[in-house]
Every structure is written in C-alpha cells, then in structure tokens.
C-alpha cells in the first residue's frame, strides 16, 4: 500500500506526494505530506499559503524554497488548466531494450530477476513517454507520470498494465497487483508477463514486503493527524 494509492482520487495531491518522495525517503516525506494536506488541502489553499509557513513545514526535507515555489506554481497551473480526458505530450523519454532474451523458469525469485528470467540487453534505445492528462505540468517527470497512470487513470482502461516503472516501490506494487488481480508473474525492464503465479513466488513477495517496506508507507492521514 503506497501513499499514491491513498490519494488516487486526487491527482493534485498525488503529484505533490510523489514530488516529495522523488528525492526523500517515505519515513520523512510522508508525514510532511499529510501535514501539508491538513493545512492546505486544495490547490487554491496552496496558492494562498503563507510562504514562510510553507517553507518551515518543508524545511526538514531540504530544498524547501525550491519545493515551496514549485508547489505554488503547479497549484496555479492545476487551477488554470486542470486534467481532462485530453492526453498531453511529455518531454520524458523511455529507455527500452532493443533486444531482449527471456527465459521463464518454473521458480522465479523477484529479488534475483537479473539471474532468473531477466532481460539480457545488448543495447538500448529510447521512445517518447506516452501522453497523459498531466504531462503538461511543470516539474512532472517519469515517476509522477508512472504513478498517475497506475493510480489515477480508470481501472477499466487497464492503463496500469502498460506501465514499466523504474522506481522500486512502483515495481514492487505492480508485481503484487499483477499477481493478485491477474494471477501473473510480471517483470519490469521491458519484460512484462512471463507466466502464471505459483505458491513459491507469492511467498517470496510476502517475504520481500515484510523486509523492505517501511511502516511509514502504511500511514494514512488519520494516523498522522491523530498521532
């Protein structure tokens, strides 16, 4: 369960959250995010926020002046040009394998995907990132666009199935989503689905989750505010 899932019904909040997480661990960024949303829950509120107060809340994360300016800028742009069904081109580019050789063993360990069923890439090329309704906003990079396509676009569109993220938490989330909802083993790095799930694979996912996810990533707004 990621912070992006908690705010999937509010693209503006999602863009703010992933921006904070872009260069900061969840342990520090997530409590600050909920504090920001408790204080300024809408784009209009953020635009009207007192600069010094906003900077003081962001100060523990570093780059506080730059972050504060960006939050006001994207909030204004969000009001001026909110997301619609219109897809906007992105300046991001995807690096994709030019040649991929895949083997699908009977037992797949997601921790060792470089050794089991991983792509063996001779060279790479790039392609434009797919257009999205939020690609036109300032400071929105691949992590934000991947998060938006996974969490904010309608489930019926199955857009999440087309996403090949680089972020380790998004990769972990998609491995779970593919396994739970589609009963498939899925790899990043341009590979995709390789086979149906089995019990050993599910046990590895559980073990990986218990070892690597920080408790902070399960916090919701009620937990933070009441604490």
TrEMBL record:
Pfam families: HhH-GPD. Residues 28-158 form the HhH-GPD domain. Coiled coil: none annotated. Residues 111-130 are annotated as: Disordered. It comes from the Eukaryota. InterPro entries: DNA_glycosylase (IPR011257), HhH-GPD_domain (IPR003265), MeCP2/MBD4 (IPR045138). It is found in: Nucleus. The keyword Nucleus applies. Keywords: Nucleus. GO terms for molecular function: catalytic activity; DNA binding. Its main location: nucleus. One of its GO terms (cellular component) is nucleus. One of its GO terms (biological process) is base-excision repair, AP site formation. This is DNA glycosylase.
